[in-house]
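Interim report to the steering committee. The following record documents the input for SOSS complex subunit C (103 residues).
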Amino acid sequence: MAANPPGQGFQNKNRVAILAELDKEKKRLIQSQSMNNPGASIPLSRPAVNKEFRDQAEQQHIAAQQKAALQHAHAHSSGFFITQDSSFGNLILPVLPRLDPEP
């Protein structure tokens, strides 16, 4: 069994004391922050604006992707395609013509 180097017990006690002091300081700062700003925990309407902006930017990005995919498909295929929301994440969907059944 290896013996502990001299001073290691002191270092561990010192570490524990420092961590306890940091924990107390953290709790004190959290309490003072909540007392100085009682409404700080109330969500502001600003994130909703950011979400709307993000949604709008995402929609524009998807529209640009759909347009590019549609142009590519029309240029490289003899089929017909439309842009439509897909359950599987497809940007464009092929259109198959309906043929009247022959009698």
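DSSP finds two helices and two strands in the chain. The committee is asked to note this result when reviewing the revised timeline.
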